[in-house]
Amino acid sequence: MSEFLDFGDLRRPTSPNHWLVAPTDAAVSLHPDAAAPIFQLPAEQLARAWMDIVRRAPRTRITGLSADRLQVEAEQRSALFGFVDKVSFRAVAVSDQSSTFFAYSRSQTGYWDFGVNGRRLSDWVEALQRGHKPISR
């Protein structure tokens, strides 16, 4: 059973081994590394699209799906040493037919990640945008 990250209570560490993508209106409090686009998809459909991307990623497994099916917890292991990075995703409804998201990737070991978490989320967000054209960025 997975522990679910509470994005409303997220406290980012001072270490550089994490990356956050968040809706523009969360920028003031969370200081995200990138803005999350808005998609013309209901939130549950956006979460399912994210799960499809996670399932295709190497050495990655889904560790939890919230009861409302909007939050996905996953972990990915590094190829060489098997270090675990945790990735949390939460789809957020903008309207009945549009949504955005929070995505947070962080290393569980060490201080540096050499940009791995940022590249991972950038790649996964790009894959999401290829499959579902955003209505804003």
Tell me about this structure.
By secondary structure, this protein is α+β, with helices and mostly antiparallel strands. The protein has three helices and eight strands, in the order βαββαββββαβ. The protein has helices at residues 27-30, 43-56, 116-131, and strands spanning 18-22, 34-35, 38-39, 60-65, 71-77, 84-95, 98-107, 134-136. The strands form two sheets. The protein has a six-stranded mixed beta sheet with strand order 2-1-7-6-5-4, with helices on one face. It has a two-stranded antiparallel sheet with strand order 3-8. The protein is globular. The model has no long low-confidence stretch (mean pLDDT 92).
Let me know the average pLDDT.
92
How many runs of DSSP E, i.e. beta strands? 8
Class of secondary structure makeup: alpha+beta
The side-by-side strand order for the widest beta sheet comes to: 2-1-7-6-5-4
Assembly status:
single chain
Alpha carbon gyration radius? 14 Å
Considering DSSP H and I runs of 4 or more, what fraction of the residues is helical? 10-25%
**How many alpha or pi helices?**
3
List the helices and strands in order: EHEEHEEEEHE
Low-confidence stretches: none
Proportion of beta-strand residues? 25-35%
Q: How would a textbook summarize the main sheet?
A: 6 strands, mixed
Q: Termini distance?
A: 34 Å
The geometry reads as globular
